[in-house]
Amino acid sequence: MARRRGKLLGIVLVLLVLGGLAAGAWLFAVRWAPSRAQYPVQGVYLDTHEERATWPTMKATGVDFAYLLATTGSDGRDQDFQRRLAEAKAAGVRVGAVHRFDLCRLAGDQAGNFITNVPRGRDMLPPVIEMRFLDSCKDRPGRALVLSEIAALIAQIENHSGKPAVIKLGKDFEAMYDISTAVNRTVWLQRDFFPPDYAARPFVMWTANEKRDVEGLEGPGNWVVVQP
Predict the structure, then answer these.
(1) pTM, two decimal places
(2) Calculated CA dihedral for residues 103, 108, 114, 115, nearest 10 degrees
(3) What's the CA gap between 223 and 65, in Å, rounded?
(4) How far, in Å, CA of 40 to CA of 181, rounded?
(5) CA angle 97-127-38, nearest 5°?
(6) Taking a C-beta distance cutoff of 8 angstroms, is the pair 110, 156 a contact?
(7) Residues of the chain with pLDDT > 70: what percent?
(8) Is 184 exposed, middle or buried, given 0-12, 13-18 or 19+ CB atoms closer than 10 A?
(9) How far apart, in whole angstroms, are the C-alpha atoms of residue 111 and residue 161?
(10) Per-residue pLDDT for 223 more than 80?
């Protein structure tokens, strides 16, 4: 009986140790960010419309800038974008807008959606065009057509903003269309914990942790760093 109890106690202790290690690893992962010594400028990308942010807290705890998803395709938009933009600016956080590219929509219609919903201003960060495959669009046009549409979209968004656009490339999208060899713009890549290398040119911006626990933000945030 004593031997059985000893075995059970041993199993419980092992499970507790393993649980503690798992919890420690999870806690490390959700709090991890690259070193400030290597990447002095760090911020967040809020890529849905549901995140609730307390901007003064975020600013005080290390959010240097923020990008907000403003529009998707030709008709998707964040109805609260203007409010979120104003709140971030009021807290002293530099902020910019992201347009999510849709392969199933014409570039002119997408540009119109962005221009209508995103104000231009000297204090705005460069606009970002995010390129990834969307669940709502199953089309896969040829590369020449995609590059032509992207060029038209970039031209119109840059004309509106007065600043060169940043190209945020999903790994699968880049693998199919090889955007980074054809579009001479700043590249933003994504890979948790390890610097990404899937584009033809080095990244300037890097989403280093997609699920970081950011103080002042309800829910996880995409943590983004900038090459110095």
Answers:
(1) 0.87
(2) 170
(3) 10
(4) 28
(5) 95
(6) no
(7) 87
(8) exposed
(9) 11
(10) yes
- DSSP output for the chain: -HHHHHHHHHHHHHHHHHHHHHHHHHHHHHH----TTT---EEEEE-SS--EE-HHHHHHTT--EEEEEEEETTTEE-TTHHHHHHHHHHTT-EEEEEEE--TTS-HHHHHHHHHHHS---TTBPPPEEEE---TT------HHHHHHHHHHHHHHHHHHHSSPPEEEE-HHHHHHH-HHHH--SEEEEE-SSS----SSS--SEEEEEEEE--TTEES-EEEEEE--
CB 224 within 8 A of CB 208: yes
What is the pLDDT, as a whole number, of residue 28? 64
**DSSP of 49-101, one letter per residue?**
S--EE-HHHHHHTT--EEEEEEEETTTEE-TTHHHHHHHHHHTT-EEEEEEE-
For 141-196, the pLDDT digits (tens) are 999 999 999 999 999 999 999 999 999 999 999 999 999 999 999 999 999 999 99
Select from 50, 41, 3 the least CA-distant residue to 208.
Answer: 41
One-letter amino acid for residue 131 of the chain: M
Start-to-end CA span in the chain (Å): 65
Q: Record the tokens describing residue 219, joined without a space.
A: 């829910």
pLDDT value at residue 29: 82
